[in-house]
Structure formats: structure tokens, C-alpha cells
Input
Amino acid sequence: MYRKMNIQKNRLTEHILKAIEENDIQHYLLNARLEKTEELFFVKKECTLRRNKLTEKCDVTIYHDFEANGKQYRGSSSFIADINMDGDELNKKIRTAYHSAASVKNPYYQLPASSERFAVPEPETLPADMIPRYHAQDIANIIFEEDRDTAAFINSLEIFITQCSVHIINSNGINVSYEDITYSGEYVVQSKTPQDVELYYDFQYSSSDQEIEKSLRASICSSLDAIKARAHAIPFSEIKKQRGTEQLPYKNLILEGKSVYELIAYYLRRLDASMIYPKYSNYRLGDSIVRNAGHDIPSDKLTITVTPKVPYSSEGIRLSGRCLIQDNIIRLITGNARFSSYLGIPATGEYDSYRLQCGTTPLAEMQRQPYLKIVNFSDFQMDELTGQFGGEYRLAYYFDGKETIGVTNGSISGNINDYISHITLSSENQSFYYFDGPLAVAFS
Amino acid sequence: MYKNMDAEKKTHKLPDDCFVTIRSLLIDLFHQLEAIPSFRDVSILVEKSTGKSYRVSKSGTVIKDNPFAATGAVIRLNSPIGTYEYSFNDFSEDFISTIPEIILQNLSLNPDTNPTCAGSSGQTDLSSGDRLCFNQSSEYLMNPEDMSDDEITHILSEIYQSAIEYNANIIDCICIFQYLIIHKMFLSHDKDLQQHIMWSTGVAQPLAHREEKNHYYRNTFSTLGGAEILSDMKSDIGKACDTAIELLDSVTPPAGEYEVICMPDVTGLIAHEAFGHGVEMDMFVKDRALAKNYIGQQIASPLVTMHDNAKTCEEAATYFFDDEGTLSHDTVIIKNGILLSGINDLQSAISLGVSPTGNGRRESYERKAYTRMTNTYFEAGKSSLEEMIASIEYGILLDNGASGMEDPKNWGIQCMVNIGREIKDGKLTGKIFSPICLSGYVPDLLKSISMVSTELKLSGCGYCGKGYKEWVKVSDGGPAIKAKVMIS
Output
């Protein structure tokens, strides 16, 4: 049961707007966030800590327009305002930010404007659909109902139900707000025989996600199966030793699970104006993302749609599902107001969730030839500046053409720019908070 | 002994009166909560941190509050249904007066579905009985708050400009300066503590570009102090640019086992990832750390002595008390290769029946306290770096650690390192490898350490996550070490 938030929702933004007006500030952006959480922490099935949180803060950006050497500049400086700041403190913060912004010589750009006006929800009132569908204990019950096996079990669990209210206002007419609830957490699964091992997993759902319970149950079952497999897995180096070889051949490197999101998110980041403007990325609309193809290996083409989880960017720009890449061809450059303005393109806001169109190759087909399929990394790394990726894996499967062996403690590294021209996308799908797309990708 | 340790010069202290306006309100709240029969072991941690982050690069200039600046409080108490915490940031008298009722309501809501919590925050069990009061401050040489934003961005712009003009291959240089002034007050029945700490960090990261290839070199700076590090940042930029350009010719090393020399920042990464996380005792409680079974045993080369030291380092993770009111310690984790002790938060110490080590840290008042590292490092040894390189027939010198991931349960290690320099017949050949993924089994790696250099350096520019969240400021480091590792 959630109680009404017993603070007035608009008190902080009104307080700041008043101070902004008193200081004759012409250009500003406020991003206020009221957050309420319910949190549970378990070791095995025992709850060791219960927490609640109620916070209200506002990110304030003050802009300062000036001219130097015949050029127009728009400097900015930000600070976090909290609910305790009195008028004097706020005035001081605002004046300091305005002066600081004068030392920020960023070329002039337009702030986002909107004709859309959304009524700010009444204080202390939550729309019916914003009442949490699940409380932390409900989530715990769902998870523990699937935790019935002594061979593989949940070692520890953390659950966070976060109810937030966001209000974005700028000096150019933006005045939007939204509320959201996220159901998130992390858990560790353990198996003690034949080896005592563990694997880490997390989950996150938003109020717009359907079938949360079904998805969560499936994730728990799948994690428990994975830990049983890891308990039997052999270090990759051991297999090499057993076979007396330094290299174990395989035709396909397959990545399955969340690393698919991280790997392909490289393109999301490279196609943001903040990467293109400083020339970290030289992608342009209409370009192919595949460079230096130069061979005849058949490859799947990427089609990516950005799929926002919230309705507005931090600047109040309306976010929407849009095609980013169609059959490897760049269709959209995303970005905030500043960098989009510098590139002379419309500001779309920034995105971190996306849909990648599945391929036509079933996983079974990818696994017909010898392969190494990595299903759980300790920490998959994708460097957005260089395209280098890699990491140590905690669970993978090696197929030598005759038998499949669970392997662990190996690592891979490579550069996506060398591999993208021979990528295969699975026809099977996976879906989680930031991603909807192929369950697996394979590189020949 | 430590980088930037220059205690004589740091004579300025931070103001220690920032809680004056809210202190009496919070003491009243503490007494109200303590008077409720259902509550025991009540404590309140109040945080008021301020600081800024400055970034100059080709993308422009950004000035904003340090993302770790936070103002708020967290109450911890034990109740009939277990340990409970309430985090809030509204210090108005009206709101504070409602907190006891809010907590009572939260604890009694839905009695049918509320879980039964166990455990104790242990303020009563572990306290000495004497009320401990102090109000302490760290020292600094130059307070960034005494400088204008214009002065700081001007210095960063100079560094940026000198990098850009250094060579046509340098296309950008990300220059960052951050500082945080942390004020904390801890109230419990036996403690009334205040601390005021300032740390500063800097990054100068030139990015080199040639044809389709990008490479960067991340040069980091940190101190328990203030803007004094800005001058170090200025002086090192040429070397950083040279290294970034050099990396454009790097190749991936052939996978295999190598003899390596780890430079201090890579040693620090290993200390942190390989063993620091492995001795966080909340992992012992969860049966998630193999180290639990190895206390008193030889787990590393006799050349290895490792500390987690929040007490005496001049580095960014130093404090007087942790976020549970336990005084900071210098904990010797490994002594001459023998695992002596883990580090812990209060709840873990109680669960395991050991003394608290003062490692209960929160990302902020908004988050739970976990066992966390502080300044983690290996002690220096007796070899010179030259001797160490000369002792290798074929191997790699590893420098510029980037990131790592722990595996306390299975003692696996993964570290990403930016630079590998080939060593052949005891000499650097000039060939450069990048990136390098270092992996292996922790005891194998620690036992393989055969030489340790005399020079000890700590770096506190990074943050440490617990798994994939809960970021706290840490430093790590050590001397150069010679070891055997798997590289891919």
C-alpha cells in the first residue's frame, strides 16, 4: 500500500522559478524529480533490511548569452537544488551559476521549445494506473516461488520499487511532467555441487511493461538453469590442456543474452550528435554502418528503432519510437538541443533503449558448426570511442563438432568494426527493459 | 609514502559549523525516535556535500554540481520486524515532525504481507558505553571554492589547448576537474560525530586519431585536498599526448600466459578487483566469498602485504568515520602472503562476531550501506623497476588500467588495461599492445608475484561499484609488481 506523498509536489519548482524571476534570469531549464521507494534486501529467503526513501530535488541549468570577438555564445552552468534551500541560498546559487555560465564559451544554440502544454498533476494525487501493481514483497514472493530447487537457489536478492514524478520546465515554453514506476532488482543464484559457483542477474520493468510476472518467473527459471550448468562447467584453459592445444577451433562466436544489447548499443552511441560533433564518430545520414566490407561472407543487416522508456528527454523534448538504422543505412542522428543545433539537425533527445530487428537464422542453425556461445559475462565492456569489446565470461558453451561442453573463466576481445560485416542475428527474440531484439548474434 | 602526501603544506581546514541550523532539529528527532518503545539502536547519518565538476573538451565546456553532491539524511533503527532505514532530504520542521509517524506507518502497513526481518544494527551491542564526540576536518592547500569557475575552466582550457596544439593526430583532450566537500554528522546513543573532508580529482585524456582508428590515454590525478592538483595536470600533458599517439600503432597481443610487470595503477586494479572485493565480509555473510575459508592461510606470495586504509592515506577515500559511525581503520588484509582479515560493515561484523573495521559505506544517504573498500594497496618492496624489466625474457609491461570486475565467489579476475609494452630479453622493444584483457585465478596470480618495486603510488580517480551499482569513491595502487597472468 502506498501512502500519499505528504509534501507538495510543486513547492520546489515554484520556489526556484520565483528566485529565477527575482534575479532576472532569461534562460533556464528545471528538471525536478520527486522519488519514493520501497526496498527489500534478502540473504537467502531471510529479509535483512527494509528501506523507504522520499526525496525531492531539482537540476537547475542557468544559461548566459554573450558575445565575444563577434561570435554569439550560450554558456550554461548547472546545480542541484534541494528542498531545504531558502530564498537567499537559491539566489546565491542562481547568481553564481549565471556568472559561471559566462566563462563557458559554447557556441550559441536554441533551447527546445514546445507548443505542447501538459497539466501538471495535482499535488498528492496519483493517477489510478500509477499505483504500483506490485509491492516489493509481491516481487519477492514471485521470485521465491520459483526458488524451489536445492541444487540451484537464490543466494541473495535486492528489490526496488521506485515511484517517481518528473517535471521539466524551461524558459522557452516547455512545461511537461510524467510519472513512472519501475520494478527493479538484482539477485545472485548459487549452486553448490559439483562446484560451488554463482551468477549475477538483474531485472527492471516499467509501469508500461506487460506480463511482468511471467517475464520475471521465466528469468528466474532461466538463471537457475544457468547456474546448474556453471556448476558443471570446466575452465576453458583446462579443455585446452586436456586436448594438448593452445587454440580450440570454432567457426562461430555466439553472444547470447544481455551482451547483445551492449554490443549493438555501440551504434546508438555513435549516432548521437554529442559523438559526431567532436568527430569521435564520422557517421552521416545515408551512410552504411559497415565500412571495409570487402569480402563475400553473407551477413545480416541491422535495423534499429529507438524505443524510449520515458516520454520526455531531460530537456523536455518529446521522445518517440523512430528508425535509427534501416538495413545498415543510417536514418537518424539523435541528440540533445546543443549538439543537434551545432550539426543543424532537429533535436530528438537522447535514447538508450532500442529494438533490433531479429534475423532469420535459428539459434540451432548457428550451432550446427563448432562454436563458442557465451551466455554470461562477468562484465562485458564495449568502448564507444574505439569499438573494442571484450570481457571474461562466467558461462559459455563450446561445441567441437561432436560434443557440447559448459565452459567458464575464459575471455574474448575484438573490435566491432572488424566483425559487423559478418554478423548473423538469431530469429529467436529476447526482451528486457532497454532492449527488444535477437536472443543471440553470431560472428563467423 | 603516498602520492600527493605533503602533509606539512596542507594547513587549511574546512569549516566545521555547517550543521548548526539543523542539528537541534535532528537531535530532537533522534530523541523522539529513541523514545518509541518499538524502536532501538536508533542512529541518524546526515550528509551535506557540495562540489563541482568542470569539463573542457572539443564538445565544449560543462560546469555542474559534482554528481555525488548530496544533502539528506538516513535513519536506521531496529524494530520488532527487523532492521529498517528511512532516507529523506526535507529538513523542514514540519516534515521532520512527521517522520516518527511515517516510520511507524511504514512498519505497520499491511501486517499480513510485511516480511519478518532479522538482524541488528548493533549500536548497542558493539559500543564501548562511553559517548564518543568529535568534529574533525581534513586539510587542504587550495580550496577550489576560493577560485572562480572562470579560473578553473581557464586552466582546463589551457591544458586542452596545449594538447590540441601538440600534434595533428590529437583531435581532442577531455580535461576534467572535480572536487567534493563532504560534511557528515552521525548521531546515536553513544556517538555524536562530525567530519568535513575534501577530495579532488582530475583527468586529462587526449584522444588520438588516424584513418579509422581512435585511441585515448587517460592520465589521472587525485588527492585528499583541493585544487593543488591542477598544476600537476598541466605539467603532464605532453607525455599523455605522446602515449595516445603511440597507441595508434598498437596491436592486440596474442592470447596466452605472460610474465608481466604491472605498473602501480594496474597493481592497484589487481589489489582492488582480485582481492579487495574478495574480502568484503558482507560477501562472507552471504556465502559469496571464497576468502572466508582461507583466513590464516597463505594465499599470495610472501612478497605481498595488502592494506585497506581509510585512516592515514592522503587519498580520496580517507575519512574519520564510516557511514555507520564506526571509526576508520588501517586494516592489514594480507601480511607476507597470509590472509589476515577481511573488511566489514557493522551488520556483517555482528553476523560474523568480529570487530567492525569501519568499511560501512553508502553511495549517499539515499542508499543502503554495504562493506566497501577505501584506499586499497599493496606495500612497496625492494626491487627497482629496471631490475624487474631486466629479469624478463619475454613478457609485457602493463600500464594504464581501465576497469575490472570482481568474482569473490570463484576468485576469477578480469581487468581491462589500456597499454601493454613488449619486453624481450630484458628490454622494452617499443612494440605496443592495446587493449589487453587480463584474466586468471586470483591465488595463482597473487602467488606468482616474484618481484615488487620500491615505488608506491595510489590513484583515487575512480569509483567502485558493488556489482553494477552503489558507486563510492575509492583509491587503489601499490608498487610495480612482476607476476604471471593470462592475457587475451
Summary: The longest strand of chain A covers residues 46-68. Confidence is low (pLDDT under 50) at residues 1-8, 117-129 of chain A.
